[in-house]
Structure formats: C-alpha cells, structure tokens
Amino acid sequence: MSIKDNALNVVKGWAVASLFRTALENRQMKKFLKNGGLILISLMVAHPVLAAGTDLLAPQQATVNSTFGSGSSLIKWFYIAEIVMGLFIYIKARSPLVFVGIVGCIIFTRVAFSIAS
C-alpha cells in the first residue's frame, strides 16, 4: 500500500519535516532577497537624478594634498616606522637583505602617497 502525500505535512517524524521545511523557507527567502536587491540596484542606477551629480569632495583636495602629499608629516612618520621595523627585523633575522626591503618599502610608500594626493 503506497500513499502519495507531501512529506512536509506529516504528523510522525515532525522534527525532520520541520528541519526540511525551514531549510526550504530559508532558500526561498534568499532567492527573494537576491532578486529584490537586484531590482533595487537597477532602479537606483536607472534613475537619472541619482546617476548625475556634483563632486562633493572637490573642496577637500587641498586638505588631502597637505595630508598625503610630499613633505607632509604623515609620510615622515611612515618612513620612521619603516626604518624602526626594519631594524627590529634585522636584529631578528640577521640578514642584510632586510635593508633592501626597507628601500623597497620607502619607494612603495612614496609612490602610493603620490597617487593618493
């Protein structure tokens, strides 16, 4: 005798059916949130007022240049920290290649800060 019924609507074995039911509901909720998020993002991008605007950070360019530009105190502190860390690494490793790494870090810092400013 075979009875075809929904396995999630059984009385016996309700704990297992409950686990399957919550897993199915969670999967459906994830699909709904994913599709709803895609719809909201597409509406935000498609709206012309949200797509066009002015640069609100343009007045702050002088502040960024003075903070991250060449000759700023932040770069000097980075150089000092790199040299101190290089000395600690040299004491630990006793390898003169650490000083090549210090030069590489200083060059990288200089390039990165010039790009940032």
Automatic annotation (TrEMBL):
<keyword id="KW-0614">Plasmid</keyword>
<comment type="subunit">
    <text>Monomer. Interacts with itself to form filaments; also interacts with TraQ.</text>
</comment>
<protein>
    <recommendedName>
        <fullName>Pilin</fullName>
    </recommendedName>
</protein>
<keyword id="KW-0997">Cell inner membrane</keyword>
<feature type="transmembrane region" description="Helical">
    <location>
        <begin position="98"/>
        <end position="116"/>
    </location>
</feature>
<dbReference type="Pfam" id="PF05513">
    <property type="entry name" value="TraA"/>
</dbReference>
<comment type="similarity">
    <text>Belongs to the TraA family.</text>
</comment>
<dbReference type="GO" id="GO:0005886">
    <property type="term" value="C:plasma membrane"/>
</dbReference>
<dbReference type="GO" id="GO:0005576">
    <property type="term" value="C:extracellular region"/>
</dbReference>
<feature type="transmembrane region" description="Helical">
    <location>
        <begin position="36"/>
        <end position="54"/>
    </location>
</feature>
<keyword id="KW-1003">Cell membrane</keyword>
<keyword id="KW-0472">Membrane</keyword>
<keyword id="KW-0184">Conjugation</keyword>
<keyword id="KW-0812">Transmembrane</keyword>
<feature type="transmembrane region" description="Helical">
    <location>
        <begin position="74"/>
        <end position="91"/>
    </location>
</feature>
<dbReference type="InterPro" id="IPR008873">
    <property type="entry name" value="TraA"/>
</dbReference>
<keyword id="KW-0964">Secreted</keyword>
<keyword id="KW-1133">Transmembrane helix</keyword>
